[in-house]
Amino acid sequence: MAVVRLETEDHQENGFVSSEPAFPRQLSQIDGSVLPFLGGFGRYQKQFILLTWIPALFIGFSQFSDYFLLGQPNNTCVHPPVTHGNWTGSSLSLNATNGSAPVPYFYSDDTQGETNDTLCTCKEWNFELQTGLKENVVTKWHLVCDSSWKVHIAKFSLLVGSIFGYLVMGVLADWFGRHPVLIVSVLFMLVFGLSVAFSVNAPMFSTLRFFEGFCLSGITLSLYVLRIELCLPGWRFSMTMVANFVVMGGQLLMPGLASLCRDWQVLQVVIICPFILMLSYVWVFPESLRWLLSTQHYGRSKGLMHQIARKNGVDVELDPSGILSELERELEKRPEKACIVTIVRTRNLWKNIVVLCVNSLAGYGIHHCFARSMMDPESKDTTMFHSFYADYYTMVGVAVASCLALCPAVGYMGRRGGLLLFMIITALASLLQLGLLNLIGKYSLRHDTVLRDSLNKKFSVAFSIIGMFSSHAVSNLSIFFCAEITPTVIRGGGLGLVLASAGFGMLTAPIMELHNQKGYFLHHVIFACCTLICIICILLLPETRFQPLPETVGDGETFTRQPLLPPRKPGEQHLLLTKPETRDYSRVQDTPVHQAAAIVATAAAAASASASAAQASENSTANGVRAS
Q1: Which tens digits make up the pLDDT trace of 295-325?
Q2: C-alpha span between 160 and 209 (Å, rounded)
Q3: Cα gap 105→126, rounded to integer Å
Q4: pLDDT tens-digit profile of 12-50?
Q5: Which has more confidence, 462 or 50?
Q6: How many angstroms separate the CA atoms of 241 and 404, rounded?
Q7: DSSP-H helix ranges across 295-348
Q8: CB under 8 Å to 203, separation ≥6 — which residues?
Q9: Which of 74, 386, 392, 499 could form a disulfide with 166 if both were Cys (CB 3.0 to 4.6 A apart)?
Q10: CB-based contacts of 354: which residues, under 8 Å, 6+ apart?
Q11: Which of 343, 326, 334 lies closest to 171 in space, CA to CA?
Q12: In the 8-state DSSP scheme, what is residue 383?
């Protein structure tokens, strides 16, 4: 599935003109000329890609900390003392008379003797956490009953902060560079992240978590872009998938880390402190060479190119391709920057980015629908496993299996084919879960309710696991696909849009929890419809496997879509007719109609010629008479 790219200096189509200037021929071909000249994927690239993997572990800690900091405990209410009458405890029976010493009455969520309204009048609580912590935010400030909405606001704060961070930091990364955004994000991450641990109430905690999410998104986005721009086409996907596995490694280690810390404030400090190591990136990590060349920072590019060549053991003094000579001629040019709003003047690029945004939104949004479907309908607060660790590691296991399956699928089918495959699986799992389970209950096993409920539960769990598996793959691949399609000059902004769309998809989970899961079925139906729309839209995307990254907006605009299936032979194109007929029109002039028309035309021409000759003869005779 090759992608055709038109090599033109000024791209113009139907009035849409790229705002990018014409670049030098060699310096604009970074994947084809500059990086191979500097040693290709050498020691320099491998060293700094490793430095992008290490913080991925810390990012994994922060992204999944909500499961522990805001985990719901098992609530046990201690009622006011009872002075008269008989009463029954949960596990013992005592008789309290004549103003004897008060004995607390323990009420758990499993007790059926009182209503929720009675439970929420409790003034004293006993909490039991299953996350390995002795105390978290919920238990410290008693965020239950009338205060339970503050937990959802705290979950909102991290996600909303991340959404704003992706949008703002993406634009800043295109304008000022990837390196400054990374360092500034790390500095403020340390400030706000450590401040969270010293929050004195829930509003302060939520506010600081907003800024923590804002800074975390800057770190995530800048590292993602730097990693992509360091790699040659054949290494981009594999290096990105390794980083994803490192993030999931942090997710796997979080329960053990929580068990060691025992307190949510200690856990928060332990999560944030490793980011101190990234302060050394001020001196260790350089700016992206690809961004410097694309934005015409040729003065800074010259020193960095010599550094890369020296690290990779390449002698650049020979310069057979003339890249350094061309760089010397372009040193006088002023830097030119671009913003993501440039895509409104394009014809194809904005469509590609919008399609991937919708894919990312649908993938993360429907992922929560599948996770919610795994919950036991007979229990309000626990999932089918009735264990925090079983539920947590099931989720991680599905994510790991999804990434493992994504690698061979993308390697064999490409970016577009892999994304289409997993989106089709997601849509099928969603539609079968919404429709098949209702058919089982309505048209079969109407008399055997026990067997019907058992089958419904098993099918629901099976389709939920398949849907979580495929939707996770859709989300990850959409983000990576956008990083490859978006040009270097606006890659930060484009990737920020897709990541922000993913954040909106994840935001649906706390929204549904805040409304007590009301409208859950409609929520699932809407995202199922989105997956069907995405299947059609994916066919409009170009294939980027083994293709060089676009550097300018004009380069991104010249990606053209090819058929999903490659031709069977080189140069062969799929035609509507399987056996096209070859017709000979060389003897069409021999038909009777054509011969009659030719005779008439010849006669008319002869008559016209004779009339012209007669007229000329009369004119010459008249002229002779006048002359005599």
Answers
A1: 999 989 999 999 999 998 888 787 777 888 8
A2: 10
A3: 11
A4: 443 444 444 444 467 888 888 899 989 888 899 999 999
A5: 50
A6: 9
A7: 298-312, 323-329
A8: 150
A9: 499
A10: none
A11: 343
A12: B
**Ramachandran angles phi, psi of 78, nearest 5°:** -105, 110
Q: Are 74 and 136 in contact (CB under 8 A)?
A: no
C-alpha 336/C-alpha 135 separation (Å) is 53
Is residue 1 within 8 Å of residue 414, measured between CB atoms?
Answer: yes
What are the contacts of 254-260 at 24+ separation with CB within 8 A?
254/60, 254/61, 254/64, 254/65, 254/67, 254/68, 255/68, 255/131, 255/132, 255/389, 255/392, 255/393, 256/132, 257/61, 258/68, 258/131, 258/132, 258/133, 259/132
In 3-state terms, what secondary structure has residue 436?
A: helix
Q: What are phi and psi of 55, to 5 degrees?
A: -65, -20
| Phi, psi for residue 23 in degrees, rounded to 5 | -100, 160
Distance CA 323, CA 577 (A): 48
Q: Flag whether pLDDT at 209 surpasses 70.
A: yes
| CA angle centred on 393, ends 392 and 399, rounded to 5° | 100
What letters, b where the CB count within 10 A reaches 16 and e where it falls short, cover 464-502? bbbbbbbbbbbbbbbbbbbbbbbbbbbbbbbbbbbbbbb
- Mean pLDDT, the chain, integer: 79
Sole residue written with tokens 């703002």: 168
| Residue whose tokens read 């307190």 | 263
Q: What residue has token string 């070859």? A: 582
The whole-angstrom separation of Cα 352 and Cα 622 is: 79
Q: Which residues contact 200 (CB under 8 A, 6 or more apart)?
A: none
Q: At which residue do the structure tokens 């839209």 appear?
A: 537
Question: Rounded CA gap, 266 and 271, in Å?
Answer: 9
- This prediction has a pTM of 0.80
> How far apart (Å, rounded) are the C-alpha atoms in residues 507 and 482?
21
Q: What is the DSSP letter of 31?
A: I
Segment 596-624 shows an average pLDDT of: 67
State which amino acid sits at residue 618: E
Beta-bridge partners for 383: 375
Q: Could you tell me where the DSSP H helices lie in 313-348? A: 323-329
Helices then strands, each counted (H, E), the chain = 21, 9
**Helical (H) or strand (E) element with 24:** none
